[in-house]
């Protein structure tokens, strides 16, 4: 929840070849070689087939340059020689191949991918955002109605202010190449990102540069906000560090990536946060926020000092992959033990999973705007899941709200005694990016053993 900050949070200290940027043409200086990874597709009996895949880094991290090798974007400003308008920028600038381990701190090993927080190479890279691919040119599409999605995660090195996020978004499988012919780089180069915050920090959207109206960030030397944003539905399977976690559906009124203009994008960069076609808040289930402060964390019931399995189940009204989404359930497996999601202990708010009734009551009890219902609730989220979504794996820190919406008390101006404000045990002064980056440079997250299949098929119920 409150992932509006997402569009400010992926950044690299830009030296010559580590510009954070998004472009549309493919460069010719560095080959693009995707790190391999495997995942598993399971059937109702629990038999799982291994699928070979790849991961690609989001284009917003890459070096973008002219045909002569001159930067099209440096620091947090555009080069006016090449990017005076959106169309010209996409014609003049090329997106270069990535050096995954040395520049971005991304490595894979069989079914596992490790994302390092700080990587010092030619420049200083901070965090990353990856997409799972089915082949060299297309994202893997997941269809999860009536299914479950499970993965193992190691968050033991993620302290307050960090977020290892694994989630789904309604991106085009080819990165937008078919719908936007100006985009000739496509999914191979990580193009086409969108989410329910309608992020405006993306350098290119729908095949054109986002340089018109671009305003450099005042507190970040590498990012800015453009005149356009990129909207689509978002299912946050996992936003977490070792102190707190949440899963959150964010439905939209549309079923594919859509460009928005200025304040109509909503979110924190706009005059009205709720002006967009998407639900920026979502309906979250965070065990700590729901009143259980002894469930998740180091040494607790779900012990974040060691690896555990996260299982998310998408229940439909008739149990089929074509039914209407009626509930999203969560359980954990650690050391052979299945751990059910904790139940809410907030007065007037019962339940241990996400349903429309739970979400309506949560908004009422917490005094939050119910944009979840406004944008279709679980049925709206179910439509996106039915149409197919792309898997995102990321690690980031928060220049907008210091990650307090996940692991501290938020809003910071509200009393901690108000229901819904306490979201984790981290202090009000934690999560400041400059402190996080200096204090936890060796932080990392590891995602592994991704499995998809019918409900009950991806994990063992006993040892």
Task: Give a summary of the structure in a few sentences.
With 463 residues, the chain is mainly beta.
Mean pLDDT: 92
Number of spatially distinct domains? 1
Name the CATH architecture.
Answer: Distorted Sandwich
Shape, principal axes of CA atoms = globular
Question: Structural class of the helix and strand makeup?
Answer: mainly beta
Question: How much strand content do the residues show?
Answer: 25-35%
For CATH, the homologous superfamily is named as Glycoside hydrolase, family 7, domain
SS field, number of helical segments: 7
Rg is 21 Å
What's the structural blueprint in terms of helices and strands?
Blueprint: E1 11-13, E2 25-26, E3 36-42, E4 48-57, E5 64-65, E6 73-74, E7 77-78, H1 86-92, E8 94-95, H2 100-104, E9 106-109, E10 112-116, E11 118-120, E12 124-126, E13 128-133, E14 141-142, E15 147-154, E16 162-169, E17 204-205, E18 208-209, E19 215-216, E20 224-225, E21 228-231, E22 234-240, E23 245-250, E24 258-261, E25 296-297, E26 302-303, E27 308-316, E28 325-334, E29 337-340, H3 356-366, H4 371-374, H5 377-387, E30 389-397, H6 404-407, H7 433-439, E31 444-454
Parallel strand pairs: 2-8, 3-31, 25-26
Antiparallel strand pairs: 1-12, 3-4, 4-13, 5-8, 6-7, 9-10, 10-31, 11-12, 13-30, 14-30, 15-27, 15-31, 16-22, 16-30, 17-18, 19-20, 21-24, 22-23, 27-28, 28-29
């Amino acid at each position: 929840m409150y992932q509006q900050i997402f569009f400010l949070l992926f950044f690299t200290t830009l030296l010559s070849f580590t510009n954070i940027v998004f472009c549309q043409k493919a460069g010719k200086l560095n080959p693009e070689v995707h790190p391999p990874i495997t995942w598993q597709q399971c059937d109702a009996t629990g038999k799982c087939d291994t699928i070979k895949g790849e991961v690609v880094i989001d284009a917003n991290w890459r070096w973008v340059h002219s045909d002569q090798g001159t930067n099209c974007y440096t620091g947090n400003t555009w080069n006016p020689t090449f990017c005076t308008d959106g169309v010209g920028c996409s014609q003049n600038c090329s997106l270069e191949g990535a050096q995954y381990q040395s520049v971005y701190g991304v490595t894979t090993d069989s079914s596992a991918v490790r994302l390092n927080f700080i990587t010092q190479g030619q420049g200083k890279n901070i965090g990353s955002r990856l997409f799972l691919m089915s082949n060299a040119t297309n994202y893997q599409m997941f269809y999860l109605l009536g299914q479950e999605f499970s993965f193992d995660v190691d968050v033991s090195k993620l302290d307050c202010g960090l977020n290892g996020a694994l989630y789904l978004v309604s991106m085009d499988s080819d990165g937008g190449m078919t719908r936007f012919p100006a985009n000739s780089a496509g999914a191979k180069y990580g193009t086409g990102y969108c989410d329910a915050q309608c992020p405006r920090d993306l350098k290119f959207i729908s095949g054109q540069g986002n340089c018109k109206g671009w305003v450099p960030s005042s507190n970040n030397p590498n990012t800015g906000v453009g005149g356009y944003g990129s909207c689509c539905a978002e299912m946050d399977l996992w936003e977490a560090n070792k102190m707190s976690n949440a899963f959150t559906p964010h439905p939209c009124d549309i079923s594919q990536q859509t460009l928005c203009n200025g304040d109509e994008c909503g979110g924190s960069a706009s005059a009205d946060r709720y002006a967009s076609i998407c639900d920026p808040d979502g309906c979250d289930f965070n065990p700590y926020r729901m009143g259980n402060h002894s469930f998740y964390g180091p040494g607790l019931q779900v012990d974040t000092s060691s690896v555990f399995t996260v299982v998310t189940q998408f229940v439909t009204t008739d149990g089929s992959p074509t039914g209407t989404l009626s509930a999203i359930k969560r359980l954990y497996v650690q050391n052979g033990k299945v751990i059910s999601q904790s139940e809410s202990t907030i007065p007037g708010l019962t339940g241990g999973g996400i349903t429309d009734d739970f979400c309506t009551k949560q908004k009422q009890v917490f005094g939050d705007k119910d944009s979840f219902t406004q944008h279709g609730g679980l049925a709206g989220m179910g439509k996106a899941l039915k149409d197919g979504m792309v898997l995102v794996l990321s690690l980031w820190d928060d220049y907008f709200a210091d990650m307090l919406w996940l692991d501290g008390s938020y809003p910071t101006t509200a009393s901690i005694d108000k229901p819904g404000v306490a979201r984790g045990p981290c202090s009000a002064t934690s999560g400041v990016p400059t402190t996080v980056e200096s204090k936890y440079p060796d932080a990392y997250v590891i995602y592994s053993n991704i499995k998809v299949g019918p409900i009950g098929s991806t994990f063992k119920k006993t040892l």
